[in-house]
Amino acid sequence: MSQVYISYDFKVSPLQPATEILIAELGYAGFESFVETEEGVTAYIQKEEWSPNILEEINILDSDEFKIEFTFSEIEQINWNSEWEKNFDPIEVDGKCTVRAPFHPNKNFEYEIVIEPKMSFGTGHHETTFMMLQFILENNFEEKSVLDMGCGTAVLAILAEMRGASNLDAIDIDEWCFENSLENIQRNDCKNISVYLGDASLLDGKKYDVVIANINRNILLNDMEAYRKCLAKDGELYLSGFYKEDLPIITEACNNLGFTFVENKEKNKWVAAKFKI
């Protein structure tokens, strides 16, 4: 029996940052897959999870800053591979790393990551994921223990293992991301990554040389102390998922916990930053 979905087609103006905010809020409301379009985003939710008032808690729809229109309809089971084949192009990071889907040809990069993205965040197309991949390429991960917090597709943990990390944990609160991470880890023949379903409460008693967290500003600020407690001496913290104007807030929170700012990257107003203990 095929699963029935409800599809919402959102037209968003201006596109950013409204589309990113909309996707985040829809994810919390139970939508499980998103395909960004030239005009906005198409979002999907299983009919059994849907209700006529599903959008009541989507605050951005009431914002005066953006114009968001939508239509919705009932559809049969989605062929996600077909959807991603139409919308997901391979990416290349600094001539060293490529992130591609199984249906893309091998380009013989030094690091080649094959991702079946489904609905999970983390294909490398988003600016924050791209910058975090850059940080992993630029820094030493040899024989280090690594936490990938809010792992999405586990693409960051996968590259960290390829760069020599010896013991890695990948954690996400979303069950779809958890399952997708397991699939991608197996697909890339990773041996040292353990995947967990949950939040920062899983970090009690853990220790890592490196913590990677690509989530969003509010969750980063809320969980910062947990990251600090689980970092070993001389540990490194890589954060992304926030805008340039949020960097002072993030930096202040890190400084208050004993971190030292090292550097940051910026891409289309998104920021990734490196801190050290």
Keywords for this entry:
277 residues; alpha/beta; Alpha-Beta Plaits; Rossmann fold; 2 domains; seven-stranded mixed beta sheet; four-stranded antiparallel beta sheet; 7 helices
Can you describe this structure in just a few lines?
With 277 residues, the chain is of the alpha/beta class. It contains 7 helices and 14 strands.
Any chance you could write out the topology, listing elements then pairs?
Blueprint: E1 5-13, H1 18-29, E2 33-36, E3 40-46, E4 67-75, H2 80-87, E5 91-93, E6 97-100, E7 111-114, H3 127-138, E8 145-149, H4 155-162, E9 167-172, H5 175-187, E10 193-197, E11 208-214, H6 217-230, E12 231-243, H7 247-256, E13 260-267, E14 270-276
Parallel strand pairs: 6-7, 8-9, 8-11, 9-10, 11-12
Antiparallel strand pairs: 1-3, 1-4, 2-3, 5-6, 12-14, 13-14
The portion of residues assigned to helices is 25-40%
Tally of individual domains: 2
Which second-level CATH architecture of the largest domain applies? Answer: 3-Layer(aba) Sandwich
Task: Output the CATH homologous superfamily of the largest domain.
Answer: Vaccinia Virus protein VP39
How much beta, percentage-wise? Answer: 25-35%
Which structural class matches the secondary elements? alpha/beta
Spatial sequence of strands, sheet with the most strands: 10-9-8-11-12-14-13
Major sheet details: 7 strands, mixed
Report the total helices. Answer: 7
Q: State Rg.
A: 19 Å
Q: Low-confidence parts, pLDDT < 50 over ≥5 residues? A: none
CATH class of the largest domain: Alpha Beta
User: Got a strand count?
Assistant: 14
Using the alpha-carbon principal axes, give the shape.
globular
